[in-house]
Fold Tripartite tricarboxylate transporter permease.
Amino acid sequence: MGVLDFLANGFATALQWQNLLFAFVGVLIGTAVGVLPGIGPMSGVALLIPVTASMTGGLSPEEAATSSIILLAGVYYGAMYGGSTTSILLNTPGESSSVVTTLDGYQMARQGRAGAALSIAAIGSFAAGVFSLVALVFLAGPLSDAAIRFGPADYFSLMLLGLAAVSGLAGKSMTKALIMTVFGLLLATIGMDSVSGVARFTYDQPVLYSGLEFLTVAVGLFALGEVFKTILERDYASGEVTKVGRILPTRQDLKDSAGPIARGSVLGFFIGILPGAGATLASFFSYIMEKKISKNPAKFGTGAIEGVAAPESANNAASGGAMIPLLTLGIPGSGTTAILMGALIMYNIQPGPLLFDEHPQVAWGLIASMFIGNLMLLVLNMPLVKVFAKIIETPAKYLLPIIIAISVFGVYAVQANTFDLMLLMGCGLAGYYLSRHDFPLAPLVLGLVLGPMIENNMRRALTTSNGDFSIFLEKPLSAVFLIGAVLWIVIPLLLKLRGRKVLVSEEG
């Protein structure tokens, strides 16, 4: 079967009525998550994992995994669309990848052109989303075929590269990011060792024998942590929302935006593939590039439509690009894709080179649903943008109890024990404390998800080499990945020491 045959089968899966409904709900909630300042895609995806697990209870494991991941991925790329709304109307980005959109988007809104800015953001996001999906379709097969030849040593080094990439660019302090990475790896060691059968850090407590549940930790850190932050810091402020006015862009707007959308899509896609870079860096780089090549760079920051079209295209293309290392190599490149990977593992689906052979329904169904979801987002965002603008005014007193209820009932519905509820509260408090002191949470989640796989591949590699660690340097591919990991940590460090400014991924 060729790529197009697999894609046709994927569309057959994605067009089933329940999957269409899951995609629609996912992109609708994703847009709302993007619109609401404070709730990022990581919190939104983590919060909905237990909800999807309950909703797919009657389906077979393969069907349940497909439907769940379709909804969760919809939240991820839907948030990229929604994030621009608050940037343009309120001068407050809904999530970190829309920070740069505020520079020109809010100025356009003040000039009475909010509708044109919002519609160009939606059109750019749609074009970029479709471009990144077409590239994903044609790159997924060759990359999976290449990755299938990887040995345990190559995989171990590739995962270290993934950890180093996310830690090297996450948050404001690399030391804090590395501390969180090691903390995540340590948490992953709790439980029964699958090889020797020895209980590690369980203190004779049976609830710890199976280790810490990823779902509970993720929901506590991201969703409850955000709730505690809003309550304890009284962060309820919502500014004055600018009126939207005429929605459709003029012919000149479309002409001015075509180039930035095309360049932003290509740049965003390739930045999205890089582990650790993510949508935030993609939007910054595309904005900087447009300003550099513009004949009139002075207009940027005063309401230039190119300053909205380029970053909004780039952040959506990056979210599509980030699915490539996740689906083909099993390496999440960002915090949100780490949570998506944790969700797939919950359903006993291992992302990686074998995903397309062993679970084609999940992999191609997801890719096809993203085409449909992007179309749904364009239809939703153009005529309903005024409705989404109203969501910004939702008072925190209604929103916070809903998040707490979904977190507590969702985790209990999946785990059904009181220990996980206590762990949920503990992780919520830890999430608040850590984010308040600028400790990035994405490296911790990544360490928790990748920890067992890193350990497993390291053991397998050392078994084949009779305990000789030099195997990681003797294998050429493994050595290249290790050198890449070291450079990813050392280069930003050297740049900082020389007084250069290093752009970091705020998603961490």
Observations:
- The beta strands are 191-192, 199-200.
